[in-house]
Amino acid sequence: MRHWLLKSEPDCFSIADLARAKKKTTCWDGVRNYQARNFLRAMAVGDRALFYHSSCDPPAVVGTVEVVRAAYPDPSAWDPDDDHHDPRASPENPVWSMVDVRLEAIFPRAVPLDELRGVRALAGLELLRRGSRLSVHPVSAEEFRTIERLARG
Q: Which of 139, 143, 136, 137 is nearest to 122 (CA)?
């Protein structure tokens, strides 16, 4: 099992939206960065991910999800009416991928970015690297456990 971090702007899709979804499950679509896409493609059923709210005040890790379907083509890329449309993509050349995730837990306490920056065990976390904008990236098992501990107090 591998561990990941998934970013979403809560105005677009929040962990509360996931909690309201049928079976608390949704596709993780709209990723339009090749490196993040490759990370999606590396995910396997049973992998776990931290759910991170970005572009909000404060940005924070708010819960965990489980990957319940491995990567498959993201049809929003070839839908001209979708915000994530990519004219280079088509059903014959899907270009972009998505996975399905199911809510595991909403943390009793969100762990804000500023707090994460102060934890020595998280010094290597991609999220904390200056200039990093990846919406999907791996985290180590220890980083994952550290953040879960912080959230649970």
A: 143
